Amino acid sequence: MPISRLPMLGRRFLMLGGAAAFSATGLRPVPAVARAADSAVSGGSTIRLIARPGRAALAGPPHSEPETTVWGYDGRVPGPEIRVRQGERLRVVLENRLPEETTIHWHGLRVPNAMDGVPHLTQPPIAPGESFAYEFDATDAGTYWYHPHVRSFEQVERGLYGPLVIEERELPRTIDRDVTWVLDDWRLLEDAQIAGGFGNAMEAGMTGRVGNTVTVNGRVTDGGFAVRSGERLRLRLVNAANARIFGLVFEGHEPVVVALDGQPVTPHAPEDGRVVVGPGMRVDLVLDMTGRPGARARVLDTYYAKLEYRLLEIAYGAEPLRDRPPTAPIPTLPANPVPEPNLARAERHAVVLGGGMMNHLEGALVDGRWLDAREMMRRGLIWTVNGTAAAPGVHVHEPLAVLRRGASYLLEIRNETAWPHPMHLHGHSFRVIARNGVPTRHREWQDTVLIPRRESVEIAFVADNPGDWMFHCHVLEHQAAGMMGLVRVA
Ligand SMILES: [Cu+2]
Q1: Do you know which Pfam families this protein is assigned to (predicted)?
Q2: What are phi and psi of 356, to 5 degrees?
Q3: Ligand 1 center to residue 477 CA distance, Å?
Q4: In angstroms, what CA-CA distances link 351 with 120, 316, 358, 414, 435?
């Protein structure tokens, strides 16, 4: 039985080369079911991961054939869920059994620079057959993930990613169950194999590579996500997709956002009842299961207009856990030891995102040389950060800015393009202070901030982690097509 498929993003998208391999019309939306991510680990001991090809039954039973050839940690998708307690030391030895170089970047973790996994910048890339030992303290509790930083647009797309959960020293009471949903989308051919055309230049100038099959924890099936009446869940959402933005609506339920990108926020209802998760981002929800035994409720992804689909169904078991969910207020998670920026004294910097389709771009600086737009396109470059485009695959650049260690900075990031960009800063978590000049309300700390087209955000942080840190778009095709730079903390 073939895997069912999602509509692609609009007719314009369908006309492009990478999407030509199949038709997206008349296919029903994809239902998916979550299984608990397999837990790997624990503090104290050394975790061994092998990056290698494997096979994944993305459709799950009873439609497990054909399997999809993937690249995964331990050959699985997602890779093992790494779970440690805050304050513990994490040791991970990665062995590379891929046909090409790789690294691991610990997305969102404030690690020492040498552990950040950026090839040539913070470590030599790990050659096929070689290993590398990562070791750092689990400083901040929260939901994180790990993935390569070498040719991410292909390696992540083939399945190399896994969730990393750092548990609070004292687990929040009144939470009955802690569940991780790693969201991804895939572009599959009719034989369920991953379509080629990674880093397609036309797509890179627009949405990036959006797929036709959505999975939760590496599965697409007709089953439901099993819950019990009266349960209170903590649901950790991780968006591991290259480019797809999710906007989840839990029909008949009222999710409360308790953390963004691992960091606690003031508990609040998502805007318009919809939980938006851009590529690279994480959202922790508390979800009270208020339905009756035997009830079903849909979780819809409504992010793209007219392309909404059912992500999965919440399926209540016959036996309630209790009469109703706990009445205790939803707990504010304990703050992590992230230094608060001094906004009054913060030095301001402007960051302008430019380029892309439906925009005029004269050219940009590439490796210190001015290239006009045509020459940029010839090299697969179309995006800029402050008038500079990072050459494909090159992570070592002149810094966009040199920051003084321990000082506070406020960056005004203006997205002057026609596309949204989830901008990710390595090595730090930052406060999101304002959007379009309007102060934010929930004390958001993030490491990846989604900036809609033609909008702006202000972020602030203390540059307390020395080293060279990437600052890039987490639409991985945008990153590969120039939207990347680095900031130096010295
Ligand atoms: Cu982008």
Answers
A1: Cu-oxidase, Cu-oxidase_2, Cu-oxidase_3
A2: 85, 170
A3: 8
A4: 25, 48, 20, 6, 14
DSSP code of 113?
G
Residues 351 and 485 in one domain: yes
- Site of tokens 């994944």: 56
* Residue 6 neighbours by CB distance under 10 Å: 23
pTM of the predicted structure, to 2 decimals: 0.92
Residue-wise pLDDT for 107-131, tens only, equals 999 999 999 999 999 999 999 999 9
Q: Which residues of 391-421 are buried (b: 16+ CB within 10 A; e: fewer)?
A: bbeebebeebbebeeeebbbbbbbbebebbb
Q: Distance from the CA of 332 to the center of ligand 1, in angstroms?
A: 32
Q: Torsion-angle region of residue 217: left (phi > 0), alpha (psi -120 to 50) or beta?
A: left
Cα–ligand 1 centroid distance for 204 (angstroms): 9
- 238 and 160 housed in the same domain: no
Tokens of 343: 């906004």
Name the domain count of the chain.
3
Tell how far the Cα of 256 is from the centroid of ligand 1, in angstroms: 28
For residue 306, is it within any domain? yes
Relative to beta strand 401-403, strand 484-489 is parallel
